[in-house]
Amino acid sequence: LADKGMEQLVASLGLLLLFTVLILLALGGNSLVCAAVYFDRTLRRQPENLFLVSLAVSDLLVSVLVMVFAAANDLLGYWPFGRVYCQLWISCDITCSTASILNLCAIALDRYWHISRPLAYVSRRRITYGIVIVWMSSVLIGFAQIAFGFAQQKEHEMEVLTQELLQKGSSKPTCQLLLKPLYAVGSSMCSFFVPATVMVLLYTRLYLYTRKHIRSIRSQLKQATG
Length: 226
Fold this sequence. Notes:
About 80% of the residues lie in helices and about 0% in strands. It has a two-stranded antiparallel ribbon with strand order 1-2. The protein has a single domain, classed as Rhodopsin 7-helix transmembrane proteins (Rhopdopsin 7-helix transmembrane proteins, Up-down Bundle). It is mainly alpha-helical. It has helices at about 1-40, 40-45, 50-75, 80-115, 125-150, 180-225; strands at about 165, 175. The protein is built from six helices and two strands; from the N terminus they run H-H-H-H-H-E-E-H. The longest helix is centred in the last third of the chain and has 45 residues, at about 180-225. Strand 1 and strand 2 form a beta hairpin.
């Protein structure tokens, strides 16, 4: 029993160290991105860097609002923060994760626009509108469960189990989320599969466009030197 207890202690300490390192790296790295854009005039004057700041903010929120409480839940083996924050925690997780991938999609679209149309100018206002749309969409997807849960607890399209469920053989509360298939598929498509597909298509187009442009330059150089 003593050996088993020691093994559990070592495993818990290792997990704690891992979570601490990951959270600190996320906080430090994304804070540096925000600070660099804020303090560097050259970076601040380039409106497309606002997408990078938005991405960094979404990842910062993941580390603060999601990872910290996920670490506590895993280390303690139960959910100690109550039913209400269980709902908020799940909603924040979905919102920030969705915002992160939508920001990546917006960055891919911005790069494609700049490379395929180098003379076109994208204003700061348009980029700001894009960021607002990203966050509004993310909040809508993430917090729809709370809105539907409070409005129609039995008949809504998504069923959220945020009450303190009892684990088998234990009186410790857990935080669980159960989705109906329709909502699960819809939110997964909007939060991951559609943005990921768009990014793959955009970067594929960028690769093909760049390769074509390089071939054109080489052809012109050969004609000039030949």
